[in-house]
What we know:
By secondary structure, the protein is mostly beta strands. The chain has one helix spanning 363-367, and strands spanning 3-6, 23-27, 32-33, 47-50, 56-62, 69-76, 91-96, 99-107, 122-130, 140-143, 173-177, 183-190, 198-205, 210-221, 241-245, 249-254, 259-264, 275-279, 300-304, 309-317, 336-344, 355-362, 381-385, 392-399, 409-416, 421-427, 439-443. The protein has 1 helix and 27 strands. Strands 11-12-13-14-18-17-16-15 form an 8-stranded mixed beta sheet, with no helix packed on it. Strands 2, 3, 4, 5, 6 and 27 form a 6-stranded mixed beta sheet that branches. The protein is globular, with a radius of gyration of 22 Å.
Amino acid sequence: METLTQLNGPSGSPAPSSAAGQRWVMLDRFSNRRAESSATVDGNTMVACRTSTGWPINVSFNFTAAPASSLVYFDWVGVAPVEDDRFHRPQVIAAHGDYILLEMMVPHSSSVKRSAIDSSDITIDHFLYETGAAAGRPPSMSMLPCCKIPKLFEHCGGPSRLYRRRRMGMNDTGLLRLSDDELLIAQLKVARDEPYDIADLYVLRVGHEWELKQAVPVVVVRDDEGSKGDEASSRWWDMDAVFSIGDRFLCWVNYNSGFLILCDMAADQEAIPKLWRVSLPAEAVLDTDDDDQTCMQQSRNMGAAGPRAVRFVSIDPRCCCGAPGTSTCAQGRFAFRVTTWTLAISTDQLVAMTWVKDNVLDCYELWALPSYKGLPRVYPEYPTVSLDNPDIICFVIKDDNFVRYEDWKVWVVEVDMRSKSLLSASRCSTDRSMGSCPLSAKLQW
């Protein structure tokens, strides 16, 4: 069970919610079998539905205000279709308002009780879970129409694969509830071949069918120092994350190549969408080959800092002497520095978008805090920007010095970067997946 220790109060008042009744949550991406968990699940969140192949399932959530983890649970009703269903459990793709987008790899009826199945035995289902809180009704879950539009910029390996049900990746698919309560889902695919400055945008306005916004121009926005990373065009198509900003923008980011792509989703449906490419801060772009780069999602993250701003956080190793780069000595093996920047969004192409450095926190400043006593002095992972107060960043701290798995200890710490104070430290539930960054969202439940 996740326990929270409150250490200090926030340095300032949290920013108001974007909509009345919405609360900041950190949703775990991967679901747990309810029957296998000892956690108490809120029965009021349970919804029963069927997959496209007819299998009945129950889905429920354990919603908890951040920084504690909110978890998703599911169970097959009756006999499970496969003996090992670890790869056939719902995954959280995106969330916004009172909606959560789930994806599930569903076995066909002919796969009953097989220990393993191949790709020809599965289909991809997407469900939209609605908490119902905004409308004052019980939660519900509906199946979305599948997207069979060919991925023009993807090397598919044969015409037979072009019209398979499309997967909605956590790294390229966003969900947005617009100000007029219209709900849309968007997936971005950037060109793999020249010209590199165009992208395909697949959009589903819930209640309608999927539509393709083809070959949308990507406008490079240069800041005061110029745009860094344009030379990396040959490897910039893979996105690392996507998130919503207010009720108007979706933002895709590539941490390795060092840029983000903004899209104004509130624009006229019939008009060509506007995509802006903005480089990350120059000092945050690594000048190394892909093979030398670590998993950027473990050390970087972004989140909305209001309806028209982005907050970027980066954890970077530093030498024991204070210089950037990984230290080779034992004393500096876990040394790091955390830096945050803010980008104000402008839809005026004549106005440069410039990153402004906000705060820098050195590891020894964090470790020296009296409230940090008892926590391991290790490299933090999976930073998450608070959607209540962007000055607050949550980190995962792992104590990997254990023999038995049940002795493994993991904490989520909540740090105010402006006041350089530790606000809370919480032991993580064993139900939480430790290999991915949680989805930070404002939800009403």
